[in-house]
Amino acid sequence: MWRNCVRLARGLGCGAFLRPDPKVSRCGVVRGLSPAAPCSPLWNSVTWLSQARELKDYALPNSSWSQGMMDLYSRFLEMCKDGTWKRIPSYSNSVDHLPESLKLTSEKERKETRLFPRNMDTEGVGFEYAMFLNTSEKRMVCLFQPGPYLEGPPGFAHGGSTATIIDSTIGGCAIFVAGKVMTANLSINYRNPIPLGSVVLVDSRVDQVEGRKVFLSCQVRSIDGQTLHAEATALFIRVDSTKSLQQQMSSQ
Ligand SMILES: CCCCC/C=C\C/C=C\C/C=C\C/C=C\CCCC(=O)SCCNC(=O)CCNC(=O)[C@H](O)C(C)(C)COP(=O)(O)OP(=O)(O)OC[C@H]1O[C@@H](n2cnc3c(N)ncnc32)[C@H](O)[C@@H]1OP(=O)(O)O
């Protein structure tokens, strides 16, 4: 079963968080993948992408990460050891995250599907973040360090960038629990501005699932938990009938 989980996760592009992969360099680039590399239907289905270009996992530490970001990241990695939490790898193209079963036909044909927060060319200037999933709690947390290109009020993160990271974290949580979803509603209360370069914890969870509707909530807090920066509720709608990633992983 473990082997199948690993295979599935590779198909999802998740190999990096399941076990160290010798093909993944320290900066998270997956090198030299070919059809002869570890084989499973899901793995094979993503090799056409990796042949065309290298898959870089952006949710790994880089030199722009502050000590606070590194410390928090290490704390969550520790919590991954007993399987309670899982580190979620992150790529610049959204389809690289998805198994074939969750892709629309048009996505299969499209080679470039840029995922907005992962498409800044310089490390540290925009969205630096790493996500961790707790499946039993239906919870996704995101460690977020906003860079200077996200400036809104002088010295602070633009509210739209905060909305983006909330939407991505909540969205990631909804995807793992419910499968392919779209944001239908996102309601945010901004409580305290987020200083650029600081590190905050975006903590989201699924509160309820009613048919195709997935209701979630989220809080954005400082690392010490003392400052509430924002809180949000969201409604996501499932847009197809495929099983959730969580169901697929547990049925392997
Ligand atoms: C992008 C993939 C990345 C993959 C990542 C993989 C792994 C995760 C790792 C890391 C996470 C990283 C990234 C996270 C990814 C994504 C986050 C961003 C997500 C987005 O950024 S996504 C873009 C913005 N999003 C839109 O662009 C949606 C535009 N919109 C529509 O596409 C339709 O509107 C739709 C599909 C929403 C519904 O359309 P529909 O036709 O399927 O359904 P319908 O309208 O019938 O509604 C069914 C029932 O929901 C109720 N309902 C609908 N809307 C409501 C509302 N607003 N308020 C209250 N209730 C509502 C109805 O009232 C009815 O309720 P009832 O059944 O009770 O009558």
TrEMBL record:
It is a peripheral membrane protein. One of its GO terms (molecular function) is long-chain fatty acyl-CoA hydrolase activity. SUPFAM superfamilies: Thioesterase/thiol ester dehydrase-isomerase (SSF54637). One of its GO terms (cellular component) is cytosol. Its EC number is 3.1.2.2. One of its GO terms (biological process) is regulation of mitochondrial membrane permeability involved in apoptotic process. It is found in: Cell projection, Ruffle membrane; Cytoplasm; Mitochondrion inner membrane; Mitochondrion intermembrane space. Pfam families: 4HBT. It catalyses: dodecanoyl-CoA + H2O = dodecanoate + CoA + H(+); octanoyl-CoA + H2O = octanoate + CoA + H(+); hexadecanoyl-CoA + H2O = hexadecanoate + CoA + H(+); (5Z,8Z,11Z,14Z)-eicosatetraenoyl-CoA + H2O = (5Z,8Z,11Z,14Z)-eicosatetraenoate + CoA + H(+). InterPro entries: HotDog_dom_sf, THEM4/THEM5_acyl-CoA_thioest, Thioestr_dom. Belongs to the THEM4/THEM5 thioesterase family. It is an enzyme of class 3 (hydrolase). The keyword Protein transport does not apply. This is Acyl-coenzyme A thioesterase THEM4. The gene is THEM4. It comes from Chrysemys picta bellii (Western painted turtle). Residues 155-227 form the Thioesterase domain. Keywords: Apoptosis, Cell membrane, Cell projection, Cytoplasm, Fatty acid metabolism, Hydrolase, Lipid metabolism, Membrane, Mitochondrion, Mitochondrion inner membrane, Transit peptide.
